[in-house]
Specification:
By secondary structure, this protein is mainly alpha-helical. The protein is built from 3 helices and no strands. It has one domain. The longest helix has 10 residues.
Length: about 35
């Protein structure tokens, strides 16, 4: 998740597409894992 977000300069929509998950799921995972981005 972190690598993908860095690759897309924080663009959550693009990162989610790359990871094969929805944008909402990505946001939930960021919150669940308490990622400080």
């Amino acid at each position: 998740i972190i690598r993908s977000l860095h690759r897309w300069e924080g663009n959550r929509t693009r990162a989610a597409e790359e990871l094969g998950i929805s944008r909402r799921t990505l946001i939930n995972k960021i919150a669940d894992y308490q990622l400080d981005l």
